[in-house]
Amino acid sequence: MIRVVVADDQAVVRAGIAAMVGAEPDMTVVGQAGDSETAVDLVASLRPDVALMDIRMPGAGGLAATGRITADVPSTRVVVLTTFDLDEYVFAALRAGAAGFLLKDADPERVIDAVRLVARGDALLDPAVTGRLIGRFAGGPGPSEAERLAALTPRETEVLHQVARGLTNVEVAAALGISPATVKDHVAAVLGKLAVRDRVQATIFAYESGLIRPGIR
């Protein structure tokens, strides 16, 4: 079972999400929170697989809660729930360690898919929105980014490029003509060499280093 904590300050929204997630045969909602402090405490005590986190909540807010959760309970994957006009907060949440984000008006199926996706260790990335965010808020590449990028082999750089487009391992394999297992090995090598925790962080690095430019594939 995928264990989920739902955090949203709107009781109706929180109950709706919890009911939707709890109705799935492979998921269970182990806790609900209406503010950021409660959310952090629940995750610390319950250690769920996934936390669905509203970015605007009473207390320190969902952004601060995301940072604390990813630092203190790295086994819990955080998916940020937001509205499209809060780009800067979404970017900050990704930098804080969120496994991805969803718009609050996402279809129920999308929310369920997101929970399953991040629970198995993948990242929830919308290439268009992520590229827009990173293109707007990331600075130019610095010496550190250039050195880390240079440490990658040509094939690892190709894999990073495809991952930053939001492709899964299977899709990357098809694009490069290699096996999914080989892609998995390359992704692990990329994460290690770049010293990033997951595919979301690798995607951010790809934009910040200049490997990927918004609107250019």
Could you characterize what this model shows?
The protein has 217 residues and is of the alpha/beta class. The chain has two domains: 2-124, Response regulator (Rossmann fold); 143-209, Arc Repressor Mutant, subunit A (Orthogonal Bundle), CATH 1.10.10.10. Helix content is 55%, strand content 13%. The chain contains eleven helices and five strands. It has helices at 11-22, 36-46, 62-72, 87-96, 108-119, 127-137, 143-150, 154-164, 169-176, 180-194, 199-208, and strands at 2-7, 27-33, 50-54, 77-82, 100-103. The chain has a five-stranded parallel beta sheet, sandwiched between helices. Strand 3 (50-54), helix 3 and strand 4 (77-82) form a beta-alpha-beta unit. The chain is globular and about 50 Å long. The termini are far apart.
